[in-house]
Design brief:
Strand content: 15-25%
Keywords: Cytoplasm, Repressor, Translation regulation
Number of strands: 6
Protein name: Ribosomal silencing factor RsfS
Largest sheet: 6 strands, mixed
CATH class: Alpha Beta
Subunit structure: Interacts with ribosomal protein uL14 (rplN).
Number of helices: 5
Order of helices and strands: HEHEHEEEHHE
Pfam family, one: RsfS
Subcellular location: Cytoplasm
């Protein structure tokens, strides 16, 4: 299964927005076949709660401006360590670097195809 073009465009917009706010370890995963409830995950990291919030804000602004999309649900904004933004067809995870290492979404979804986000990523940085 491949990520639909509309979802891919939004995933790339979200990845670029995260990159603009200096998110690290930005990866997209095609989870549609595995989960069935969403097509893709975007996972990225930041070293502080302030930066996590800045990344989330920029992703929301860019997706709204370029695609008219708004999250259906947001979880974790107050914790500052892991924010999940559910857009229905994709889910964005912005995690504190330590949370990412502990919960290991990258390890959990290591067997699903990665999505080409159209940005530079360093695969060696994945926790």
């Amino acid at each position: 299964m491949t990520v639909p073009d509309l979802v891919l465009a939004e995933l790339r917009t979200a990845a670029a927005a995260a990159s603009d706010k200096l998110a690290t370890n930005i990866f997209g995963y095609d989870v549609g076949e595995r989960l069935g409830i969403t097509d893709a995950f975007l996972v990225c990291s930041a070293p502080s709660d302030r930066q996590i919030n800045a990344i989330c804000d920029e992703i929301e602004v860019q997706l709204k401006e370029k695609h008219g999309s708004a999250p259906l649900r947001r979880e974790g904004r107050d914790s500052g360590t892991w924010v999940l933004m559910d857009y229905g067809h994709m889910v964005v995870h912005v995690q504190h670097e330590e949370e990412r290492a502990v919960y290991g979404l990258d390890r959990l979804y290591a067997d699903v195809p990665k999505v080409d986000l159209g940005i530079e990523t360093d695969e060696s940085e994945v926790a």
